[in-house]
Amino acid sequence: MKIYSGTSNPKLAAEIHQQLNSTFDISESSFKSLKIEKFSDGEILPCFRESIRDEDVFFINSTNSSDSIIETLLVIDAAKRSGCRSFTLVAPYQSYSRQDKTDHLRSSIGSKMLADILEKAGVTRVMTIDLHASAIQGFYNIPVIHLNGNKIFIDYFKSLNLENICIVAPDQGAVKRASDFCKAFPDATFAMINKKRIKPNEVHSMELVGDVSGKNVIVVDDMADTMGTMKKAAELLTSSGASSVRCVATHGILSGPALENLKTSKIHELIVSDTIESTYDKSKEISKKLNVISCASLIAKSITAIYQKKSIHELNVV
After folding, report:
1. What is the pLDDT of residues 132-154, one digit of tens each?
2. Of 98, 41, 99, 89, residue with least CA distance to 67
3. What distance lies between CA 74 and its chain's CA centroid?
4. Of 45, 140, 160, 238, which sits 20 to 30 A from 220 (CA to CA)?
5. Is the pLDDT of residue 203 over 80?
6. Does 281 score more than 80 pLDDT?
7. Stretch 90-114: mean pLDDT
8. Which of 35, 38, 120, 195 is catalytic?
9. Nearest Cα residue to 276 out of 260, 257, 297, 292
10. What is the DSSP letter of 206?
């Protein structure tokens, strides 16, 4: 087995490598033998500095930008041309998962197109965490290891020893994810927000379905992008009597006005994982509200199970 990292998640990849090294003795020099260079015009050139013939390659790289997608495709091509036995793409965050159907007339289905491109390039298997729509797994004709992001956060919330917990789904699409999260807290109640969106990243109206009065609310979603929705949700929940509002999102995209929205919101704490590497300035105002929990253990255990031909079912059950 060979483990390599792209440029989108180097810190996460190093942590995963460290955990796998204790089991498989993967040397640091081997982990770093994939060189990804860039020409001055931005052109990407990956090159393996060791033989990978007949090896099972695991490549860790979130496809959270156009450059990271092209980088991933070029690495796949380089690995296949070098004679690897299999190529597993470990993409903690798989982009374009919000484009799983044609919501608009004459629009693309980005997640289907990305699946087709990855398969054509030669991927053997894809491992990812919390696709925005789980049905995207059906776009692939290869195995998709779809990990449950809730597993990353449950121990943290249990350590808080919160009472009167209410788990809230911020929209209809998050109901299953939030209800699965609720299973870890038998005494918790459940509520949801009915959201009407007029265009991407802009919500027209919200209404609360359920009672949050006197509750410590945990809003469960798969991604935190501009934080506009979560900010409005926190205002609605607070005005409805919630004692505190914490938000959990597997993917901390945090684009555009996200950090300003978080800072000025009623949110007590936002908890995300490191599927996307943070590039924000860690100011005191933000660090008090933003908590990043590593997904390295979940991924390392899953890679180990795959390589040892064991089931990963227990890793996915809340």
Report:
1. 999 999 999 999 999 999 999 99
2. 41
3. 22
4. 140
5. no
6. no
7. 93
8. 195
9. 292
10. E
Q: pLDDT (tens digit, 9 = 90+) per residue, 26-52?
A: 888 889 999 999 999 999 999 999 999
CATH code of the domain containing 183: 3.40.50.2020
Q: Where are the alpha helices (DSSP H) in 2-148?
A: 10-24, 28-31, 66-81, 110-121
Q: Is 195 marked active-site?
A: yes
Beta bridge partners of 44: 38
Contact yes or no for 250/148 (Cβ under 8 A): no
Three-state DSSP at 259 gives: helix
Burial environment of residue 273 by CB neighbours within 10 A (0 to 12, 13 to 18, 19 or more):
buried
Percent of the chain scored above 70 by pLDDT?
94
Query: DSSP label at 52?
Result: -
DSSP H or E segment with residue 314? helix 313-316
Could you tell me the two tokens for 52? Answer: 């990978």
Do residues 99 and 129 share a domain?
yes
227 and 302 share a domain?
no
